[in-house]
Amino acid sequence: MKILGINAFGHDTSAALVIDGKLIAAVEEERLNREKSTRAFPHLSIEYCLKEANIKFEDVDYITYAYQPYLWLTHRFLYHQLRFFPKALGELKYVKRMISKFMFLKSNIQKELKTNKPIILLKHHDAHMGSTFLVSPFQEAAILTLDGLGEYETSVQAVGKGTSIKRLDHILFPNSLGSMYACISHFVGYTAELDEGKVMGLAAYGDASEYYNDFKKLVKLKKDGTFQLDLSYFEYHKKRDTWVSDKFYKVFGPRRAKNEEMASRYINVAAAAQKVLEDTVLHISESL
């Protein structure tokens, strides 16, 4: 069976090809079109994967995509709006953009690829788990996924055995380590949901101890092996462009301007955030 997986209509578009359970090729479009974090449909990536396997597009049995938009609409949007109404109304601009991209996902993919091949929409975190465990050499493994947000989940804990994956627990938005880390990108003057790698590099130069105790208050480690954010420090779940609240700035100081010198305060906050992130990931992992 030949399965072509694609990531499109967002940042860092890509493609991967699996044949009979074996990963044959995977590549991000930016490596081929030389446009960093490109949002271009991954035509070049698909071409590369097919060439690596020495097959034609006609030979592909299924196309997969790691998102189920109707889950996002019912769980993430409608439930979230009701839970945080009216404060979450600031998210409507983001919601409109998401609907235009994803609510006609299958037809948009078919249009781009000029095909009627079957398209399977997977839950986002199921794809994370499958793309690691199912193509790994391991017959059994503990599995942990973490990101900013899938449809509504931000983390899944599971166990993989053979060709099956059993979910044990999950964490729901707005409790999101990925979004928390994006807030630090915003705080130090970088671009949220793009420059988190820069923040990780920046953190290595800092002294985590200066702000560690303050930052620990933002993340509560729960006895069941999960975590809960103190949302009073954040705004991303209400209005994504704002990211953090006035309370955050009162504790850690004002946000760095784009052309401002990277003072030690920003570097040390990044270091504290990195340390708390690592503590939290270890806390979750130890519960598996």
What does this structure look like?
The chain is of the alpha+beta class and 288 residues long. The chain has three domains: 1-121, Nucleotidyltransferase, domain 5 (2-Layer Sandwich); 137-172, no CATH class; 177-286, 2-Layer Sandwich (Nucleotidyltransferase, domain 5). Helices cover 41% and strands 20% of the residues. It has eleven helices and ten strands. The protein has helices at residues 30-33, 43-53, 69-84, 92-102, 105-113, 124-134, 177-187, 196-203, 209-216, 246-252, 264-286, and strands at 2-7, 14-19, 22-28, 62-65, 119-121, 140-146, 153-161, 164-172, 219-221, 227-229. The protein has a five-stranded mixed sheet with strand order 3-2-1-4-5. Strands 6-7-8 form a three-stranded antiparallel sheet, with helices on one face. It has a two-stranded antiparallel sheet with strand order 9-10. β2 and β3 (22-28) form a beta hairpin. α7 (177-187) runs antiparallel to α11 (264-286), α8 crosses α11 and α9 packs across α11. The longest helix has 23 residues, at 264-286. It is globular. The model has no long low-confidence stretch (mean pLDDT 92).
